[in-house]
Amino acid sequence: MLGMFFWAFVVGGIICVIGQLLFDVAKLTPAHTLSLFVVIGAILDGFGLYEPLMDFAGAGATIPITSFGNSLVHGAMQEAEKHGIIGVITGMFEVTSSGISAAIIFGFIGALVFKPKG
Predict the structure, then answer these.
(1) How far is Cα 35 from Cα 104, in angstroms, rounded to an integer?
(2) Residue 78's closest CA among 94, 65, 55, 99?
(3) pTM above the 0.70 mark?
(4) What is the C-alpha separation between 28 and 41, in angstroms, rounded?
(5) Can you tell me the distance from the alpha carbon of 15 to that of 20, in angstroms, rounded to the nearest whole number?
(6) DSSP secondary structure string, the chain?
(7) Which residue has the higher pLDDT, 106 or 100?
(8) Cα distances (Å, whole numbers) of residue 80 to 40, 52, 88, 96, 112
């Protein structure tokens, strides 16, 4: 049990360190880094490497934004097997819709509750 927490911390920390290095050394903007991590997660899932990483690291691999890229490709590939080319598009939305919906709803509630400083 303790090993599971350790590896989640290490893998999540490594992903964060890579992101920080991209900010500091490569001088990438947050938007570029975010996009790069989504693409990396998608590529890793396309080669079948992200699922074993999630099994090994748990939340250390599912919490970072790389997991969103993984979800997009995973959903697209699953639905493509069932419904062909249409499944590629619908699969991406089906798998990620709950996370996107939650972000929109909580963002809206946050905007109602808190007043921005102007």
Answers:
(1) 19
(2) 94
(3) yes
(4) 18
(5) 9
(6) -HHHHHHHHHHHHHHHHHHHHHHHTS---HHHHHHHHHHHHHHHHHTT-HHHHHHHHTHHHHSSTHHHHHHHHHHHHHHHHHHTHHHHHHHHHHHHHHHHHHHHHHHHHHHHHSPPP-
(7) 106
(8) 21, 22, 5, 15, 39
Six-digit token string for 89? 């598009």
In the predicted model, what is the mean pLDDT of residues 20-36? 93
Provide Rg for the chain, Cα atoms: 17
| Amino acid residing at 6 | F
- Residue 66, C-beta contacts closer than 8 angstroms, at least 6 positions apart: 15, 37, 38, 40, 41, 44, 50
In this structure, the number of other CB atoms found within 10 A of the CB of residue 86 comes to 11
46-101 per-position pLDDT tens digit = 899 999 999 999 988 888 888 888 888 888 888 888 888 888 888 878 877 877 88
